Amino acid sequence: MRQIVLDTETTGLSAENGDRIIEIGCVELLGRKLTGKNKHFYLNPERDSHEDALKVHGISNEFLKDKPKFSVIVDELLAYLQDAELIIHNAPFDVSFLNKELELIGKPALKHCVGKVTDSLMMAKELFPGKRNSLDALCDRLEVDNSGRTLHGALLDAELLADVYINLTRGQNSLMMDVGGTTQSGDNLPAIDLSSFALPLLAANDQEIAEHDKLLLDIDKASKGKTVWRATA
Length: 233
Prior knowledge:
Layout: E1 3-10, E2 21-30, E3 33-34, E4 39-42, H1 51-57, H2 61-64, H3 70-81, E5 85-88, H4 91-104, E6 116-119, H5 120-127, H6 135-141, H7 154-168, E7 176-178, E8 191-193, H8 206-222, H9 228-231
């Protein structure tokens, strides 16, 4: 499935209260590799941006006055997104704005066009619980260069998110282990397909089971009976 990393910039924080999209940036991935077939639109939102939003994206109301309205670019955008998996950081925010724009011109919701939507923020929270998982924080943690990001921009943010997503999902393509390097004769060492191995199941012995039960009991006492296994029992 084609993957499209998407980001938007908006006039404010609430599509339901009348805020609109002013910029859409899309980056295409095929086989987890950038294709260079990107899409980028500036849009006339037919309203001014909130002051706080201007501080984030820096796109002036004057700059957007001669840009096309969403209704002008919608067919091109939907054709580009057709059947793809969308990867969006904090997906509910961007999807709510896209759905509102589609609703305003009588088009079906985004789910009727795309294959699926993946929220990279939720992925990051599962991988790094309790840590900051903003795009900037993930760039720092995953060593993605974001030195050119002084203001938010939809295309730049989509490009950064594509790198972040590839790093977040590295090694999830298949059960293949690349042993790397070459032999002394100069031949390349082959990758090892781990899926061909029958992995043994090692059962705990009586002593290990007893130690495990003791540990659970100690945790249960320390939490005064509020452990997860009690709550879900």
